[in-house]
Amino acid sequence: MDGTVVAVSRNGEYSFTKPNREGITLLAGLGVEGDVHAGATVKHRSRVARDPSQPNLRQVHLIHEELFAKVARAGFTVEPGRLGENVTTRGLDLLALPTGTLLHLGDTAVVEVTGLRNPCRQIDDFQAGLLKQVLGRDENGNVVRKAGIMSVVRTGGQVRPGDPIRVELPAEPHRALEPV
C-alpha cells in the first residue's frame, strides 16, 4: 500500500493554485515552510473568520494523481498543484485511509491524516463544472468527497518528487475520514 510523491507545491500568497517546486520543507506542527496555509492555527480565510484560534488540521493537502486521469475522461485538464494541493501522490488510495494514518514522505517527514478536503466553489471558478467531478453521492445518497485529504506535520523534513511514501495505519478500530 505504499506510493510515490509525484509533485510538491507551495505558495506564499493566497491563491487557489500552487506552483510546483523542486522540493518542499515540512515543519513539525506547522505545515509547509513558505506556504500561506502553514501555522499551528487555521489559515484558511473562511475558518479564520469563524474562529482564528482553531487548530490547523489542514497543514498539508494531498491529492492522488489518479484523480486527474478520472476528471480528464470527463474533459477536464488538471495538473499537480492546480487544485491547491501541496503533495501529489501516485499509487495510494488516499480517500480510503483511516483518520490517524501516518504517511512517511521521503527520508524523514511524517504527516498524520486528519480528514477529507471539503471541496468548495473555487474549484468551479478554476474550471466550470469541475466541482461536480470531485463531489458525488454513494448508493445511499451520502456525499462523497474526492478532492484529497488533509494532514498535519508530525516530523519535519524535505519532500521531493520521486520520494517514496510509506503508509503506517493506526491501531484498530479505524475511523473513516470526515471533512476537516
Automatic annotation (TrEMBL):
Species, as recorded: Actinoallomurus iriomotensis
Signal peptide segment: none
Record domain MOSC: where: 19-168
Protein name, entry field: MOSC domain-containing protein
InterPro entries named in the record: MoCF_Sase_C (IPR005302), MOSC_domain (IPR052716), Pyrv_Knase-like_insert_dom_sf (IPR011037)
GO terms of molecular function: catalytic activity; molybdenum ion binding; pyridoxal phosphate binding
Pfam families cross-referenced by the UniProt entry: MOSC (PF03473)
Superkingdom assignment: Bacteria
